Amino acid sequence: MNLADEYKKMGISDNVIALADKVEVSLKNRFEEIDKQAERNQLRVLKAMQEAGLQEAHFAPTTGYGYNDLGRDALEKIYAALFKTEDALVRQQITCGTHALNIALSANLRPGDELLSPVGKPYDTMDEIIGIRQSVGSLAEYGVTYKQVDFLPDESIDYEGIRAAINKNTKLATIQRSRGYATRHTLSVKEIESIIDVIKSVKPDIICMVDNCYGELVDDKEPTEVGADLCVGSLIKNLGGGIAPIGGYIVGKKEYVNACSYRLTSPGLGKEVGATLGITSTLIQGLFYAPSVIASALKGAIFAAALYEEQGYEVFPSSKETRHDIIQAVNMKTPEGLCAFCRGIQAAAPVDSFVTPEPWAMPGYDSDVIMAAGTFISGASIELSADGPLKPPYTAFFQGGLNYPHAKFGIMMSLQKVLEDKNN
Ligand SMILES: *Cc1c(COP(=O)(O)O)cnc(C)c1O
Asked: What CATH number is associated with residue 416?
């Protein structure tokens, strides 16, 4: 039996199989680049593990307070080595990326300080942390003010605006690497470097923090290698490799990471507590898998871009552009198109494939949102998933894929559903 027959048994038409074949052939060189990147990243990760002296004894579980947890210390050493930082806080007690960001901000800001976002409005869930949307426990409630510098109309970074926004109270700059679900472009590590350079040239003691979500191991360097004082992310995205069941990380200068540890646990306790309950090996193994999982997600994103470009859709980034995160956006033009796209991703999932995603009103969004995910780890967006707000231009945001064959199949199924919908 050949491959096309297998696809047909899974509900893919001859037309979509032929299109996918054609598109995939055209991507050979790009895929080779990504494989090389994965190779380099695998060596970076391996080196970090070896430098940290990782050994089997580190996988022993701790309970209770979790004092003297050698595995936890090794995990944090590995992250510090990978990011080339003085220290790291990598914990399952950090519940998600938003929580990690909240810890980093609230640990390092004090009443009267000002927080600066030099790259426009940050990710939605930051609104309530900062107090852009009024909420209980926000930084605004604690007397931390906020200033934002938007991108210029041509999407370039407003360096003059950033210079002008800095004042004597400016204490911390939060720089979001990935576009997230906004229409702006994703920052390259080089762009992050130039933003940090400008900020530090005006006021060297401003803490430069990067929201690193979705960007990890996509460029050859991490922001901490070009001047970032802190980098923050989620373990159910890139660096958990699809295996980590929970967790977040904060890496950077010892002083700032320490402050985070006192905020996460308690003043006086810091990094000393936090039992690992036996999941240390999973978090470390996840990091070990991350380079190849990220490569699969990137190939899936590029394949999606090329396939939908071929069909005449607007896609961001294009199939030819250099990638700085794993997110792919496709403007589906109509609500029906967006819903069909998501139905295809869902139908291709290993879990909950029989579920039909429907748009619903999500808190914090001004329109209905549709989401497709059939994941092993609940909500893990390093696994194949898609979502989008039901408003023009009906953009499907697509990301993840634990392996390339599944990412490819998911995208083929999405196009299958889109084409079937049109024929109806
Ligand atoms: C996902 C994400 C977050 C928040 O992470 P959660 O784990 O969903 O809380 C923050 N910023 C960016 C850019 C993200 O992509």
From this structure: 3.90.1150.60
Confirm whether 92 is domain-assigned.
yes
User: What is the span of the domain harbouring residue 311?
Assistant: 3-42+291-423
Counted residue by residue, the chain has a size of: 424
> What pairing do the DSSP bridges indicate for beta strands 368-373 and 360-361?
antiparallel
Residues 286-319 pLDDT 10s? 999 999 999 999 999 999 999 999 999 999 999 9
Note the Cα 270 to chain centre separation in Å.
26
Site to probe by mutation for ligand 1, drawn from 103, 121, 123 as the one with most ligand atoms within 8 Å of Cβ, is 123
Residue 47 forms part of a structural domain: no
Q: Is 181 exposed, middle or buried (0-12, 13-18, 19+ CB in 10 A)?
A: middle
Q: Which residues lie across from 207 on neighbouring strands? A: 172
Residue identified by tokens 């407003």 is 158
Residue 234: inside a domain? yes
Contacts of 186 by beta carbon, 8 Å cutoff, 6+ apart: 177, 178, 179, 215, 317, 323, 324, 325, 327
Instruction: Give the pLDDT confidence of 52-94 residue by residue, as tens digits.
Output: 999 999 999 999 999 999 999 999 999 999 999 999 999 999 9
Express each pLDDT in 95-126 by its tens digit.
999 999 999 999 999 999 999 999 999 998 89
Residues 174 and 228 in one domain: yes
User: Ligand 1 site: residues with CB under 6 angstroms?
Assistant: 96-98, 123, 125, 176, 178, 180, 211, 213-214, 234
Are residues 56 and 199 both part of a single domain?
A: yes
Residue 302 CA, ligand 1 centroid: distance in Å: 22
For the chain, the distance separating the N- and C-terminal CA atoms, rounded to the nearest angstrom, is: 31
Contact 263, 368 (CB under 8 A): no
Q: How far is the CA of 97 from the centre of ligand 1 (A)?
A: 5
175 in Cβ contact with 210 (< 8 Å): yes
311 and 242, same structural domain?
A: no
The domain tally of the chain equals: 2
In a domain, 414, yes or no: yes
| Location of structure tokens 């400008």 | 198
